[in-house]
Amino acid sequence: MDRYCVFGNPIAHSKSPDIHAAFAAQTGQQLLYEKRLAPLDGFFTAVRGFMAEGGKGANVTVPFKLEACKVAQALTMRAQAAGAVNTLHFTADGIIGDNTDGAGLVADIVDNAGTAIAGKRVLLLGAGGAARGVVLPILEHCPAKLLIANRTVATAEALVQQFAALGGAGVVSACGFAGIEGEFDIVINATSASLSAELPPIPAGVFGPATLALDMMYGKEPTVFMRFAAAHGARTRDGLGMLVQQAAEAFAVWRGVRPDTAAVLAQLRAAL
Fold first, then answer.
1. Smaller CB count within 10 Å for the chain: N or C?
2. Could you tell me the pTM of the whole model?
């Protein structure tokens, strides 16, 4: 039976085995998927060991997504753009590194939330690894505007320089949180603020009754960002749908079949 795993440290909290088991049952695929705790200084060894045991592929979570770029012999375009890898595919030609996070976010927005990105004004909060991974997939859906706001403006401006040509003239821009102006159709919180129950310092005016506000974090209760957005009229989503969608994308990379995510997402939501 083909074997897959997710590497992380810590890893006990991961829902990936449950998600992939559900995908396998739904699609009739025979596979085993497990959690693997990789030592902080032993990621390469852990990957090589899993391959030697016959592993076919692996997901990668914190803190190894940057190291996963180095263990791969080739990177997909979206992994190159993200500068990070969350999916490793072990092939006859070597290890291919991919990044399905951005595709997962876009699928959750477009398919699950029923919100088109094309022609919309999108505000991306944060310019770190989580934000970097979603810029290319968002731009592939042709928004009218993508504003990247970050505490350190230079970090956001570096992303603009990387992706400006792809977005087209005047589409991608950067600013500090204090420089955000106007209302947006989609607001994505890619900062780590929700981990410490904090709110990015953004004006309430970014939200309107037609705004979709999505936090990449998820939990049993809405995040501070989600509560703030809802209080100012926005529809809100957490990151659970993104988690399931990025897993479905990885499953398709490995198995060549795309599972239906709705039932799996509902199952995870009920278990929170």
1. N
2. 0.95
